[in-house]
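chain below, 402 aa
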Amino acid sequence: MSTTETFLLAMLIIFVVPYAIWRLGRTDYVAPLVIVQIIMGVVLGPGVLGAAFPAYHKFVFNPDVVKTLNGIAQWGVMLFVMLAGVELDLKKVWTYRRESATTAGLALGTPLLFGCAAAALLMSYPGWMGAQAAPWQFTLGTGMACAVTALPILVLLMEKLDFLRQPMGQRILRYASLDDVAIWGVLAIIMLDFERIGRQLGFLVAFTVLTFVFRRLMARLGQTDRWYVAMIWLIACAFGADWAGLHFMVGAFLAGVVMDADWFEQEHLDALFRNVLLTLMPVFFLSTGLRTKWDLGGHAVFFAGGLLLFASVGGKLAGAHIAGKVLKWKDGEASIIGWLLQTKGLIEIIFANILLDKQIITSETFTALLLMAVGSTMLTVPVVHPKLHRVRHRGLVNQASS
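prediction:
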């Protein structure tokens, strides 16, 4: 086959296999399509399909095909991260700043501490810390990966639960929005390279100055021109951040976070988000799966994944329950909020990809983090659905009695 034919065969596998499993298996309650795509990315990688059919895997996912897939994946994830930044509504966070800061701080800080403890345990064994990592970078990076909440996946799951537009749903979005900003801020600290500190400071100064120019320009443009200029801004910010050593996805997030959602029609933003998820992100999941490795042995990787899952789930629930006591939430709210903030999905995988690119973690640690992200996200709907049902039923009973 020619390279083009092999590439199209790979694309056919990427789109057909997850969709068939999701639709025929009716997995939506436990695993929405996006989660099935992430899992199948791992299955199609060298650790599973590559081990079972090495010759076939090497033929389909040859270096030329992988380079092409990686290019598509990078563009897709840049758009996705930019849209995540655009969707942040920091004005509402500021309006409810005490409640939002308390909850977001505890829901992020507690699993961060748990994750750092898990990282310290892993660091005592060879093969987990990356070649270019300082111990503090590995510890903080792994800990933050346990603390991540994926805002776009959270929105998808809350829509599925018919919970997004309710008051508690809007509160959870505020908490996750504040955590999103903190996550990327911590990532920027981890990425600081003291040999290139001048470049990084130069990028941040240039970004700050150009943001004022960009925002004034966008306010004067029409809808069509705004979309085009937004794409140029995204590419320029991603290039500048990568040139400075901060990674292009940090630049993509910064590009989005300084944009106002009001500049674009909400239905157009929603349509672009859905189209990116439909057309580009499946390729990113596959390129992510191609990075998974089991060189330390399946048992070790699964043990690390279980340890990180315990740190992530236990830390989030503990943080949410502490916040509930401090803020005097109603019975059952802390558990629902803690479980919904478990949704790691794409943002955690993007975060782990950056750590792997910068050699802060190894491929084995990346695989363990991927297993943790999939596990925590898959647990969310089955656990939260009956809890929401009980809370709603209790609310109806209370209304009837009053």
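Confidence is low (pLDDT under 50) at residues 396-402. The two ends are 73 Å apart (CA to CA).
thats it, cya
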